[in-house]
Amino acid sequence: MDRTAQLIARPAEDTAVYDPAAPPGPPHLRAVHDGAVEVLESNWTGTSTVPSRRLYPHQWSWDSAFVAIGLRHVSPLRAQTELETLLAAQWGDGRVPHIVFNPSVPLDAYFPSPDFWRSSTAGRAAGAPRTVQTSGIVQPPVHALAAWLVHRADPGLSRARGFLARVYPQLAAWHRYLLHRRDHGGAGLVSVVHPWEQGMDNAPSWDAPLARVAPAPARSFRRADLDHGAAEDRPTDLDYGRYVRLATDYRDSGYADARGDFAVEDPSFNALLIASEHALARIARELGATATARHARAERLTAALVERLWDPAEGMFFCRDVHGSGGPVREHAVSGLVHGGGLIRERGVSGLVPLLLPDLPREVAAAVVRTLRGPHFGCGTTTRLVPSYDLLGEAFDPHRYWRGPAWFNTAWLLERGLRLHGHLADADALRRAALDTALTSDFAEYVDPYTGEACGATGFSWTAALTLDLLHQHTATDKGGDQG
Which parts of the sequence belong to the Mannosylglycerate hydrolase MGH1-like glycoside hydrolase domain (predicted)? Predict the structure, then answer.
């Protein structure tokens, strides 16, 4: 029995037309499928999936959500287990930590390691678990959307195991934490308090707000990421020092959510929260509860997103620095930017991700698509996959992490948004490009947006998982209805 057959737990009941045992279409689709399955099998630990064995040897929060979305096609049971393992490390205040540490991995294999975060002691007041070590910050809340899609892959198995009934209270607590504890701007949107929380670690959007942060001394930490990735592809030492300083200060506060030096409303983070609010409404309805309040909250958050972060002149969303102009504002040593609050007018892929929202005003969705196709991102014209940053921006670098390379999770989100809003030809083209690039790059962490050249780690789990999801042809309700 081959690995594909071993992974198939039960067939999807109503979502998958694509049969992994006998995939349709050209033979190369079989190679794409088998390669993706092999990556997920090799990165499986028995209870969860690491993003990369060497570079990221623990469980990451939004990675596991994307992994579950792909795994549902070959093993709905394993997809459920992926999310359950992550949620088992949830804190008492509702936060889902961005890393759950594997105690069998040496401390020096990844930094910041458990002895830096000190979750069980520093996070005691916030309800950090005592039996597992985690980080203290969070990542984008795509988990409820993932849980709903996993349920839809095999509703019979999900109901038999009580999957949604068990995870729904945890997901609801997660959303309450974000909405009640992280509204630092006072307008309903969630603020991230560290660039790692948003997931696009060194995006140029962070340069200005990071300029307020004095970096930790270089001698105070050792970057394990440079053991496995080229320095020119990774965040700079200066920015890394600032990341460490922010995390240290947050830890030393007992992970209290008072507004600090760094507080930014990000369009992608909030869009994923809104999409997951719609998914929680679907889950509530499946469990026999009312969903009206959750749909209404998602609509209010969508309106706030447009009101706070949309720029009609630029045709995209921007981050908002909610720190304000109080206190010293210093020049950033890399970008030279000086900033004291308001919209951060750096064109990043985060500003396109709200396209996945079903209640986005029609004119806003149409403008986002024009921007996606235009010269700043070149989708369908000059680039193979959507770059993470403005092609014409001064900070653009096709190989440096989130300052230009294309990522497969953002391609998946934008493909979903294009299809939802009726741009089927654009969605199909982006899907084909992602499938081709995933195989030729050996399922790379990220790629050069022009050439598809692999960057970062290869055999990357969310690349493989979302490739599987794109291989499967979904019903109309799975593409649109699952979001709202």
Answer: 56-463
